[in-house]
Amino acid sequence: MTISRRRLFAGAAAAALSSILGAADRADPSRMIVRSPRPEDLEMPLDGFTDWITPIDRFFVRCHTYTPTVNLSGWSLKVDGVVEHPITLTMDDLKKLPRVELVGVLECAGNGRSFYQPRVPGTQWAFGSVGNARWAGVRLRDVLKKTGLKSSAQQILFDGADVPIGKMPDFQRTIPTAKALHPDTLLAYEMNGQSLPVQHGFPLRVIAPGWAGASWVKWLQHIEVLDHEFEGFWMKSAYRHPTRPVPPGTAVDASEMVPVTDLNVKSVIATPAGWAKPGPVRVRGAAWSNTSPVSKVDVSTDGGQSWKQAKLIGRQTQYGWRIWQYDWKPAEGSYTLMSRATNMAGRTQPLSQEWNPPGYLWNVAQPVALTISAQAPSSAVTESAGPQASYPDGYQAACFGCHDEHLMQQQRLTGAQWDREINKMTGWGAQIKPQDRDAILNYLSNRFKQ
Ligand code: HEC
Question: Could you tell me if the CB of 70 is within 6 A of ligand 1?
């Protein structure tokens, strides 16, 4: 990749400015794994799991659409639906309500999707579509109380200022009234002590602690109280998972799945990554859960045959993650490390992962290889689809309008899965000439295959 001098200067100027102003207000792509530059999907690398509070320049970004820029002077929050009095609030009105702060983990439901076998389509996150931040704002229930909720209220629908790309369905999500009225469900206007960054939903986003990121709607501008279940795509088709175990690779109809809500108990080993010298080694990482906090983390250095309890360090909060560490003195050799968190409700990470078609909620106690040797081993070969192939006719015109090839390159799919992806994209507005379709399908199926 070449970087123009102008971009270099712009980057240096932005970095200098943010160091004068204090904290950064956006993710630094040079310190993130870029899954897609547009719409933005940026993953935190493993070393981020040693910070208790994830700084904003390292906080993962997940966007279904292009990032909207909201101008506060023209912004307001409308609340209507099955309520006695619909209201419209400005940011000043919101700031008159009691300010509430909490530390909480935000994790994408698809975090870990790239580890599922067989592979499934979607952003191919490894470990880091998760972060721990300090959120501040108002209680959603204080806002809802102002409207006089009717007793028939069932679901609370959130809509942000983001606009769909092409003919994709608008990103709208609901949470049940009980979750909305919970005192820890917030509408946040601050993250890590500063105004909510644009990539994280400026000026206002939902904080649904313990629940997957899909419920934490960004750029919020409209809340509608419903007396029925919402039928929109992002509730009825996407973000659903099966309630019963299904054999890997099985297609499951959305009607036989339920919406993703709670996160799973989970832990990640941040360091050492791959190699360390013989002698004292400090194994370190983070562990988190849903509404039930982490109670302990066990570590195995022999692939799960024996376990020792790690030390939990730093502060314990209801929804934040815990940093843990385990001190160990290995001799030279090859080891398989695993960490396994348990929460207060007694749930523990599984030793084998249940498969699901959309690849959600990955939380197995994952074995990672570690070499202890005086010399660093030569660097590992990374997965690659091979040298650049020439594009088939019509591919760029049909597929590069809304996003670039990042979203295709990371997939490893069968021909049938690619066929379904092309249909999905055609439904969202991709225009493929009938005479080009076979060649495009062939190219994708041969180049980015399981
Ligand atoms: C009209 C706009 C548009 C066009 C044209 C388009 N896409 Fe997409 N595509 C999207 C959007 C938007 C997303 C991101 C969805 C998300 O993050 O939820 C996406 C995501 C994807 C993904 C990631 C997996 C998924 O389903 O989210 C793949 C693979 C993909 N597109 C392939 C293609 C291919 C192949 C073509 C050409 C046939 C194409 N796209 C053309 C809008 C488009």
Answer: no
